[in-house]
Amino acid sequence: MTEIENQKSKIENLAPRTWTRKHLLGLEDLSAEEILAVLDTARTLTEVSRRSIKKVPALRGKVCVNLFFEDSTRTKTSFSLAAQRLSADVLDFSVSTSSVSKGETLRDTARNIEAMGVDAIIIRHKSSGAPHLLARPGGVNCSVINAGDGSHEHPTQGLLDLFTIREHRHLKTEASGLKPFSALHVAIVGDIANSRVARSNIHGLAKLGAKITLVGPATLVPGDFKKLYPDHITISHDLDSVLPTVDVVNMLRIQFERLTSAAFPSVREYSRFFGLTKTRLAAAKKDLLILHPGPMNRGLEITSDVADSANSAILQQVANGLAVRMAVLYLCVGRP
Ligand code: CP
Questions:
Q1: How many helices (H) and strands (E) does the chain have?
Q2: In sequence order, which residues have a C-beta less than 8 Å from that of residue 17 and are 6 or more positions away?
């Protein structure tokens, strides 16, 4: 067997029986077993990025298109790199110079791109439900991967956050059955109402058994999630009382572009009550894991010294995003 055949056969053995999906639209749709199948596959694929030749042939001959209607640094770059590491051809579609400016619809744009022989469309759109529109009958026939739809979901961010927590806390499925996060308390802090990252995290964490406290001003913390996961979710408006009790804190970006009205009196006041500072960190558990999806508003939801502290896993999240996106592409596109 040649080296390439050997690598291909190793990758092809990564075929969790639990995953049969062609699309990844959100974590709300997934079972705990499916989420763990992605995390297990990602763990195996991290090895590829440590090789001198960082490539495996799992998606050789496949074509993946990045169709981003909103800006991105992390997600778009890491999907491109993930597809390339799996040997797929990658096309970065530029919305701003496309015929979208002439009024072409999302469905027509996607169907025309698919007609060129595309196997996966990775879509980010400002409208919640845009990926679902493409994945349903009458949309496209190829795989659709949601890279963030409005304030609805950002499933690969949710998965990479779960992966980062799991690797950091050594939460192995084998040791803990199907609820490996059951002893874990996670605070999600900030603009939960407008955050697709919060939604995907909440679905994923609750399905894996974690206790979650949603923290923020009343205007930014809706009550719906508590109704959906009453056994898992608590709501608080007092970060100082929550912080010493949690193992992980996920600090959300204030999304000024999605706020429809003034959700808090001033940025200074928001920082005072809900910003993660060195003073607040001093009252937390010593091994508190700090997450932030990026991009950060340094000095607003998190201070620079905390973002760059030893407790911060922010750049680790970005590194893990690559393995998680390789796993998602492999599971949705690369299997017979
Ligand atoms: N976390 C995240 O989605 O970052 P980007 O907007 O840069 O992709």
A1: 14, 9
A2: none
Q: Which phi-psi region, left, alpha or beta, contains residue 117 (left: φ > 0; alpha: ψ -120 to 50)?
A: left
Q: How far apart are CA 242 and CA 239, in angstroms?
A: 5
Burial class of residue 260 (count of CB atoms within 10 Å of its CB; 0-12, 13-18, 19+): exposed
Degrees to nearest 5, angle at CA 233 with 228 and 239: 140
Q: Which pair of structure tokens corresponds to residue 143?
A: 């795989």
**Is 213 designated active site?**
no
Does the C-beta of 294 come closer than 6 Å to ligand 1? yes
Q: Retrieve residue 166's tokens.
A: 């799991």
Which ligand 1 atom is at minimum distance from the Cα of 77?
8
Q: What does the H/E/C string look like for 202-227?
A: HHHHHHCCCEEEEECCHHHCCCHHHH
| pTM of this structure | 0.94
Residues 120 and 86: beta-carbon distance below 8 Å: no
**Of the given ranges (25-34, 263-272, 309-318), which has the lowest mean pLDDT?**
263-272
Q: How far is the CA of 176 from the centre of ligand 1 (A)?
A: 31
Tokens representing residue 241 in the block = 């009382």
185 touches ligand 1 (CB under 6 Å): no
In single-letter form, the type of residue at position 271 comes to: S
Task: Take atom 5 of ligand 1 and give the residue whose Cα is closest.
Answer: 72
Residues 49-105: tens digit of each pLDDT: 898 989 999 999 999 999 999 999 999 999 999 999 999 999 999 898 999 999 999
- Report all structural domains of the chain as residue ranges with CATH numbers, in order of start: 3-152+320-334 (3.40.50.1370), 155-318 (3.40.50.1370)
296 lines ligand 1 (CB under 6 A): no
Q: Are 207 and 32 in contact (CB under 8 A)?
A: yes
Element (H, E) at 42: helix 32-45
> Of these residues, 8, 22, 74, 298, which one is catalytic?
74
Alpha helices in 86-172, H assignment, sequence order:
106-114, 130-135, 155-169
Establish whether residue 74 lines the binding site of ligand 1, counting it when its CB lies within 6 angstroms of any ligand atom. yes
